[in-house]
Amino acid sequence: MHRGTWLWVAAVAALAVAPPVWADEEQDGSAEPPKSDTAGIEALRSDYALMVTECCLTEAQQQEFAKTLAAIEGEAAEWDRENGPRLADLEEQLAQARGQASGELRQEIRTLRQARAALTAATRLLWLLTPEQREAWEGFTLWRTLLRKYQAVDLTPEQKDRIRALANQAVHEAASTPDVGKERGGADRTERERIERCCERIEKEILTEAQRDNLPQKGKTASGRPRDDKAENERAPEAAGQDKGDAESRKR
């Protein structure tokens, strides 16, 4: 397999199955295990419906996707029959457990839930896409993630379009340099850093000063990183001029 393709597959698979390194989690094992993927099949169907349009799937691809979805549904149902009772029993034990026993139960539950989630991970459909379609899908999902981070600031349609262009650019650049970040923490850290860089650009180049002031975390970007106030202050006059120009354009 081509090295770039292998790296892309490894990166997406790690993101789909493993918990991200930036998630808040207590090191003693007392953090709550991730929720069970009870809606995994429904989410996969939803992703597939979006892939049809976002990735311009051919009729032949749509037929292959339908077969793959049916196979995944069968595997998930079989897993539930074999492991569902064990998972339910562990969760009952966890409700009564304390101390070290609690941590061990949480880890076992986490392992089972991750195995269940892997069955319905979107990566199982991504194998059926061409490299160009995969890049289009990854750009779409990054854009969707970024929009969720800025729900509180009431983005305009024009701003959403600019964020989508930024997301597509970030994905394309990453695809062109697959080794970036490989030695610095793996796929999950690379993805986190990409989101952080996008958030920094969004808040410097796209948001208005009023929108930045309305971000939930004062003094931080939407990704959680400390905001560069000096850079923000330098950007403010430019953003204000841009907003004024946009308003005049809309009037015309």
Q: What would you call the structural class?
A: mainly alpha
What is the overall silhouette?
flat
Task: Provide the gyration radius in Å.
Answer: 21 Å
- Listing every helix as H and every strand as E from the N terminus to the C terminus, the arrangement reads HHHHHHHHHH
Average per-residue pLDDT, rounded, comes to 76
Count of alpha and pi helical runs? 10
**N-C termini distance:** 54 Å
| Overall structural domain count | 2
Q: Which regions contain 5 or more consecutive residues with pLDDT less than 50?
A: 1-38
Overall helicity: over 70%
Q: Based on DSSP secondary structure assignment, what is the total number of beta strands? A: 0
The biggest beta sheet, please? Answer: none
Sheet-strand content, in percent, reads under 5%
Task: Please sum up the structure shown.
The chain has 252 residues and is an all-alpha fold. The chain is 72% helix and 0% strand. The termini are far apart.
Describe what this molecule looks like in 3D.
The chain has 252 residues and is an all-alpha fold. The protein has 2 domains: 32-126, no CATH class; 131-251, no CATH class. It is built from 10 helices and no strands. The protein has helices at 3-17, 40-54, 59-96, 99-119, 123-126, 131-149, 157-176, 186-206, 209-213, 229-251. α1 packs across α8 (186-206), α6 (131-149) packs across α7 and α7 runs antiparallel to α8 (186-206). Residues 1-38 have low confidence and may be disordered.
